[in-house]
Amino acid sequence: MAELIARIATGAYPAGAMLPKEERLAAELDVSRGVVRECIRALEERGVVRVRHGRGATVLPARAWNVLDPDVFAAVHDAPGGRRLVNEAAEARAIVLGQAAGLAAERARPEGLRALTSAVEAVETAADEHARTAADAEFERALLDAAANRALARVAFALAEAMGDTGRRGVDHRAVLAAVAAGDGAGAQASLAGGLRGRTSAG
Questions:
Q1: Second CATH level (architecture) for the domain 2-66
Q2: CB 167 within 8 A of CB 199
Q3: What are phi and psi of 157, to 5 degrees?
Q4: Domain at 81-202: CATH code
Q5: 40 by DSSP, 3-state: which?
Q6: Domain residue spans in the chain?
């Protein structure tokens, strides 16, 4: 599937174009027709193509694609102009996590503050890149748990899954924790979103 998405993302099969027949794709990709069929079904689920019985698969405009799907995100990221998607996703992430920080300042309970404090300490004492990445992710989970908004958390998790570690650095975790603990929603939001946006601009 990655090869097909890459071809679409790079314009080899532009919006409105029909994908080649299954037999041709199977030969080109050196896979069975069944594998090609499953790939096309997966592309349809991700909003990349529309399949009509008897007519085949038509490539949809990029605006219809589920860019929060990791496979689609990766393909668009690697295609010409992919940096724009990274910036858009980082902007969305800053907005979502900034809102989560503001809600956490209003709603965090003692156990939530303890979890957030533990995550911040893990970030600050991380021994290597792997540990820092894990601690950053745990900080986000603790923040989203404290915000107590499941829909917001689902969007944040989807963005994190698509982006990986991109855009996490630059946040002053201690400042966010202090604002949340003080019940300063505006300060928590500004600290979190400002750090993420600053990292995006610098990147």
A1: Orthogonal Bundle (1.10)
A2: yes
A3: -65, -40
A4: 1.20.120.530
A5: helix
A6: 2-66, 81-202
Alpha-carbon Rg for the chain in angstroms = 21
| 138 to 8, 14, 65, 84, 158: CA distances (angstroms) | 35, 40, 29, 27, 15
pTM equals 0.82
Closest C-alpha among 89, 35, 100 to residue 66: 89
- Separation of alpha carbons 47 and 67, rounded Å: 9
Please give the Cα distance from 119 to 52 (Å, whole number).
49
**What residue type is assigned to position 124 of the chain?**
E
DSSP conformation letters of 117-132: HHHHHHHHH--SHHHH
Query: What pLDDT digit, counting tens, does each position of 57-104 carry?
Result: 999 999 999 999 999 999 999 999 999 998 999 899 999 999 999 999
